[in-house]
Specification:
Layout lengths: L1 H4 L12 H15 L6 E2 L15 E7 L5 E7 L10 H11 L2 E5 L10 E3 L2 E7 L4 H13 L6 E2 L5 E2 L7 E2 L7
Parallel strand pairs: 1-9
Antiparallel strand pairs: 2-3, 4-6, 5-6, 7-8
Length: 172
């Protein structure tokens, strides 16, 4: 699922534990969220087990050519000009609009054509995490809308306009 989200543009590591997966998804999500996005998250990740606030953290990302990029992730200042050039390089890789031939027929809001058993997407780039998950879920489950839950995990009607956020939560 993570490889699909990232359009196979970088290597997805073998995560040693739940937190390393959360850190990876969070870091890349921050780099792919548009500046104007109203969907903030994951709020809970920026606290450690002692509830100390993490303002920033470092993340190592391996490109397909095995180049290692050390990234600085800052949830509230993700586009800082003082960040390392590696941040810009990774963002450019993830956000480059290009043609991709993929083996799946659904990715966010893109509509592919079919060629030789593959699906051709024009001007596609890595979408932000929640948009990708939401639209992927709807497509796979043949649904037209998502269910919304409040912080107490109670289903609610969603009318928009409020500040939304997402969190990692165990469901089983």
């Amino acid at each position: 699922m993570i490889s699909k989200w990232l359009l196979n543009r970088i290597n997805v590591p073998h995560f040693k534990d739940r937190m390393s997966m959360i850190k990876f998804i969070t870091g890349l999500s921050v780099l792919t969220e548009p500046v104007s996005s109203n969907l903030f998250g994951p709020i809970e990740f920026f606290y450690n087990e002692h509830k100390d606030v993490f303002n920033t953290f470092n993340l190592s990302v391996v490109l397909l050519d095995d180049t290692n990029l050390d990234i600085v992730v800052d949830k509230f200042n993700s586009w800082d000009d003082n960040f390392p050039e590696t941040n810009r390089k990774l963002k450019d890789i993830l956000q480059e609009e290009k043609q991709e031939k993929l083996n799946f027929d659904s990715y966010s809001h893109y509509i592919p054509s079919e060629e030789d058993g593959l699906f051709v997407y024009e001007d596609i780039y890595v979408d932000n995490f929640i948009t990708f998950l939401s639209l992927n879920f709807l497509s796979l489950n043949k649904k037209t809308s998502l269910d919304w839950y409040n912080s107490k995990n109670k289903k609610v009607d969603y009318e928009g306009g409020n500040e939304e956020f997402w969190v990692f939560q165990r469901t089983s």
